[in-house]
Amino acid sequence: MKKNIFYSILFLFFIFIFIVFYLGLDKPNFYTPSESKNKNFTTFTSKELFLNDEFNSNDIIENNNFTLLNVWASWCAPCRLEHSLLMDLKEKTNINIVGLNYKDKKNNAIKFLNEFGNPFVKILTDPDGTISIALGAYGVPETFLVNSKSKIVRKYIGPLKTDDILEIIKIAK
Amino acid sequence: MIKLTKLFLLILILVLSFQKSLQANNNSLLINKISKNLRCLICQGQSVYDSQSDFALSIKILIKNKIEEGKSEKQIYDYLKNQYGEWIVYDPEFNKKNLVLWIFPLILFTFGGLLIFRKVFIN
Amino acid sequence: MISSHIGYYSLVLGFILSISLLIYSLFCFRKNNKQINQNVFSILFLQLFTVVISFISLVYSFVISDFSNETVYNNSHTTKPIFYKITGTWGNHEGSLLLWLLVLTLFIFLFIVFSKKQPTKYRLLSIFFQQIIICGFFLFLLLTSNPFNFLFPIPNEGLGLNPILQDPALAIHPPILYLGYVGSSIIFSASLASLVENNINSEWAAHIKKWILISWVFLTIGILLGSVWAYYELGWGGFWFWDPVENVSLMPWLCLTALIHTIIVLEKRNLLKSWTVVLSIATFTLSMSGTFLVRSGILNSVHTFANDPKRGVFILFFLFVLILLSLILFFIYQDKDNNSQKEFFLISKETSILINNWFMMYFLSVVLIGTIYPIFLEVLINEKISIGPPFFNKLLIPFVAIFLIFMTIGPKLNWIKDNYRGIKYLRIILFLICLILSFYLIKKTSSEILFTSLLGGAAIYLLLISIEDLFKKKYNISQVISHFGFSLFILSILINSLFSNEFSANMKVGQEISFKKEQIKFSKIKIFEKENYKSVVANFEIIDEKENVISLYPEIRIYNQPNILTSEADIISSVFSDKFMVMNLLKGEEIFNVRYQTKPFMIWIWLSAFLISFGGILSLFRRN
């Protein structure tokens, strides 16, 4: 009898493992960043790309209902894809679009903007990538939609898609 | 036994000679230590220490800055956990949800010890 | 084209043979013949033959770069050197499974040929159980991972093999590792057969011990080769990362190591029968679970295969069929041997082997839970955690230290009952000296002084004791060598991890930086065009305090197919320390990120790991 109970438990245990493994197969094994809604946006100061002045991110965010902060670099191929969407966004709306130039060279960045246009009101620089880490970003491109109270409303990882742009317009209205 | 002692002395001398070469910059050692315990989030199973990706390089600079600010090792882990979640540290916390992880092997060990004890003494 | 047809249809034929063997072996089993029917041999041989043909045709497709074959297209390229075209055959999921199958069929054939003295019914049942496994693998190949899929239109060029796999150590690492894994399948089948036949006794132990040793030796060398490869090819200077794929090979190894010890008890004392069967089943189950964890892509790891959820589901079901089968058989037949209750004494070799098993199971449980716990957490409460080196170190180091101390006592005890021989004060003093020495060494380097110095002390002590035993000839030489190897292994790893030095900087050609007492000079850079990659070789000069100059040539390879950069470390090994240098290209600049490390006792790690397996090899060739 004792033996039967033991084997039944063992059997159930294996079934349990089986189910967990089976369900585990559907889970991604890579990093899936959490939707950090309503997380506070970390304030930082850094140099503007053109002006070479120090700016505090708070000053830029406070005065606008919504700010779109786009982390980009001239060497990043997917950034080119989303760049035209950002240009569109700039023309269609008056949302405050700020760039964060990630680990880039000034010349290359300017060349990039000359070629593809400049959708940004201001471009802050992040020469060693630490500001992006402080923001909780993990690469380029990455985009944050921040409200005037410095809360992160949306976070987009990877290049923006048309749907994302529509969503941004909807929220920012 | 004499042979043994000789060998022992030989090893002692060898090891002592290593001792000398041992003075390093503490900060860079600490950076290495911390970055070994962090997962590079955009890589496949690599630590921040091992990776040369932009993400990992930035994290290394961040660690250096934080150390220079006077932050402790634990504060740095906590900071990064807050930013990226627990997935980034290789050292799982000892808390309620990881309880099984930490104590399962120990329970098994105790249980095994009891079994052996029974086998040897109760027969 | 034609070779793919041949390969595919011989696989199908092999599968049919497998089914017929399943039925036929049971049929013969019922008939109670004294000898195994000659037909069984013929079918077994034919099956081996079909798999060999299939394997050769895949190799052939790779050699001639037949891109009408999907596997070849995905993993090969015309410009690849011929050696890597051949080894590329098993550098991918489909090909490596075919290799598994080849080894499976080869092993059962050899097993039947070399087990003539064993009872006929036992041999037939072994064939039966082994064919269940083989059948499963045939199905797996044919249904989810056919290596002979056609592509149309036929591409002109293949996608190429991942450059980090284009390496001699990695070319032989998988086959050797598979020999180890698959060897455990024979142990599994044989012990189930033996369980059913109530044949578990000293004689059987003596016969199966050889197979256990064979797979243990292959597994050990396989893991060793994998580590050597990681050390110089992954370019991080480490050799063990507690990566899931590594853990997965370590788990069956721990189980097999326990089994090697237990089987001796069974052989000499006819004890621990059920436990032997449990360990045999567990070893193979762990090998299979490993295959599941690696191939299904359920875990995040350095080594990735092309993932296909269908594969994961198949292995998972197959795995649980095998576990269920062995559970049921164990449930039905396990009672029979409970009548042989012999006495166990505290001070005896039996007890010390039980203690060995006790620790091995503990190590196994740590590695196991550390590997699969993240899956559970994610499925059950949807949270992601990472488990890495700190976890394993914390749970393993204290126990390994105690384990080492047991290793100095256990092997010396006699069977059945040994006497308490009084305390040997000299030994205790020696041990204390070892502890003090280790503490003195470690106090400046490690944060966890207590356990690390205990580990170091215990390892030094075991080293000394086993050196003493080497000269005494009283003890089993293969055992002493393996144990000596183990203590040396732990000690080398400890010294290596504590006394490694590292320097990392961004450097330009011509720059010179001083590090500790050495000067590191980046003297020049050269670019070569090779068969399938462009090679950027740097020359660094390391000048030590005595003005001795050592040149190191780290390399960056820019492969064209697929377009991947790899860093090739340059390593200069000497008896006591390795000089390891690797560089990386920084984006769009003329500056290189250079990492220079001195790693003491590196060779000793390899050497001692080899010594551990050498003990096993020696034991295979020794007559009892």
Keyphrases for this structure?
heterotrimer, A: 173 residues, alpha/beta, Glutaredoxin, C: 624 residues, alpha+beta, 4 domains, six-stranded antiparallel β-sheet, four-stranded antiparallel β-sheet, 17 helices
Number of helices of chain B: 5
What is the straight-line distance between the termini of chain B? 39 Å
Mind telling me the CATH class of the largest domain in chain B? Mainly Alpha
CATH fold-level name of the largest domain in chain B: Helicase, Ruva Protein, domain 3
Count of β-strands of chain C:
10
User: Which blocks of ≥5 consecutive residues of chain B have pLDDT under 50?
Assistant: 19-24
Q: Tell me the overall shape of chain C.
A: flat
Biggest interface, residues from each chain: B-C, 52 and 64 residues
CATH architectural label of the largest domain in chain B? Orthogonal Bundle
The amount of beta strand of chain C, in percent, is: 5-15%
Kindly state the mean pLDDT of chain B as a whole number?
Answer: 81
Given the structure, what is the number of helices of chain C?
A: 17
In terms of DSSP E residues, the strand content of chain B is under 5%
How would you state the average pLDDT of chain C, rounded?
87
Task: Describe the largest sheet of chain B.
Answer: none
Structural class of chain B: mainly alpha
State the fourth-level CATH superfamily of the largest domain in chain B: Cytochrome C biogenesis protein
